[in-house]
Amino acid sequence: MNEKYIEFRNITKRFDAVTALDNISLSIPQGCFMTLLGPSGCGKTTLMRQLAGFSEPDSGDIYLNGRRVNGLPPYKRGTPLVFQEYALFPHMTVYENISYGLRLKKTERPALDESVARMLETFNLKGMETRFPRQLSGGQQQRVAFARALIMGQEVLLLDEPLSNLDAKLRVEVREELRQIQKSLGITVIYVTHDQDEALSMSDQIAVMKLGRIMQVGSPWEIYFRPANLFVADFVGAVNLLPVTVTGAGGEGLEAVWHDQRITVPGVSGFSPGEAALFMLRPESIVIRAKAPSGETSRSGGKLSGEVTFSSFLGRYIRYWVKCGETDGKELTLVIDDANPGINGPISGQVELTLDTRKLHVLKAEA
Ligand SMILES: Nc1ncnc2c1ncn2[C@@H]1O[C@H](COP(=O)(O)OP(=O)(O)O)[C@@H](O)[C@H]1O
Ligand SMILES: [Mg+2]
């Protein structure tokens, strides 16, 4: 497999005062579902447009399967781009929309029919050939757009927030379908979204972007549990940050004192004693329990006590906000998700918390 099937090398793109892409380098393996994730305006669309050939970078090179594609027009790149407004031709039927590219190339029947039939089958559109876009649901229209993009046998598909126009339930369905189709066709997909759930659930790899730069590239697991910095930690989900001071760094890993407790995090390096750091924990990596009436919470093994200030029932889990006293004059409130609540509804009042120290991640405290 080609690990550098698509390669951006030092891509910079400016629009007047705005640096939309700031020296971006990124390699995408063949067959990978790569997601560009980041807030609005961080440069995701601009990066896709450079690859698709709708815009040229100020500097840097783009390689597709070993070939430099800078300067080539879009139709010579084989990288169809599907947008949020997937712009089907309204006056054409599903058959005519899907077959559009092949008809431009003067492909004759029966080859044309065969190709369309294959796409109808792949995208679960059989029986809809003669309908017009207005006679289709949003999800069906989206699938016609995918089919139209892939009928020429392209091996790369670029998708720019393609599900934004669909309602929440349909979005989840289409993203599962899309992932299965991508795997079965073996194509390479670059997918743009600002939705972290979408990114985590679909991708092989995620590139998190901020202000024209790539902050981190990694698997959904790495991005979620081992974010490279505060921005990534915060952008991909709710997060608890506990300010600590490093007391030891060496073979055993990192040791820090937190709430009078000495906590060791194995396998962490790059910190020195005396340095300020942040323990990062996702909301589901803390266990919450009602405090026993006479119980003293032992201050060891990542345990502490607190008081529930708010809870929110989200069906699959309950989210709690728990006040845990002060650290350095700052109030510390932790967010905790309980995915397996009891049968009596949310707990309240005094609680005991246990941090799952195996899932602790340590971040540099940024000024
Ligand atoms: N054609 C353009 N002219 C001027 N500024 C642009 C143009 N396209 C994008 N930008 C700017 O570049 C930045 C990145 O935009 P974009 O790639 O569309 O972000 P995203 O897709 O991540 O929301 C933004 O600040 C945007 O305003
Ligand atoms: Mg965009």
Q: How are the SSEs ordered, and which strands pair?
A:
Layout: E1 6-15, E2 18-28, E3 33-37, H1 44-52, E4 59-64, E5 67-68, E6 81-82, H2 94-104, H3 111-122, H4 138-150, E7 156-160, H5 168-185, E8 188-193, H6 196-202, E9 205-210, E10 213-218, H7 220-225, H8 230-235, E11 240-250, E12 253-258, E13 261-265, E14 276-281, E15 286-290, E16 303-313, E17 318-327, E18 330-338, E19 350-355, E20 361-364
Helix pairs in contact: 2-3, 2-4, 3-4
The chain binds adenosine-5'-diphosphate and magnesium ion.
Adenosine-5'-diphosphate (ADP) binds at residues 15, 18, 20, 38, 40-46.
CATH topology of the largest domain: Rossmann fold
User: In percent terms, what proportion of residues is strand?
Assistant: 35-45%
Task: Please give the domain count.
Answer: 2
Identify the quaternary structure here.
single chain
Following the backbone from N to C, one meets helices and strands in this order, namely EEEHEEEHHHEHEHEEHHEEEEEEEEEE
What's the helix count?
8
What does this structure look like?
Helix 2 (94-104) packs across helix 3 and helix 2 (94-104) runs parallel beside helix 4 (138-150). The model has no long low-confidence stretch (mean pLDDT 90). The chain has eight helices and 20 strands. Strands 6-7-8-3-9-10 form a six-stranded mixed sheet, with helices on both faces. A five-stranded antiparallel sheet has the order 13-12-11-14-20, with no helix packed on it. The chain has two domains: 6-234, P-loop containing nucleotide triphosphate hydrolases (Rossmann fold, 3-Layer(aba) Sandwich), CATH 3.40.50; 238-364, Nucleic acid-binding proteins (OB fold (Dihydrolipoamide Acetyltransferase, E2P), Beta Barrel), CATH 2.40.50. It is of the alpha+beta class and 367 residues long. The longest helix has 18 residues, at 168-185. A hairpin with a 4-residue loop joins strand 16 (303-313) and strand 17 (318-327). The protein has helices spanning 44-52, 94-104, 111-122, 138-150, 168-185, 196-202, 220-225, 230-235, and strands at residues 6-15, 18-28, 33-37, 59-64, 67-68, 81-82, 156-160, 188-193, 205-210, 213-218, 240-250, 253-258, 261-265, 276-281, 286-290, 303-313, 318-327, 330-338, 350-355, 361-364. Adenosine-5'-diphosphate binds at residues 15, 18, 20, 38, 40-46.
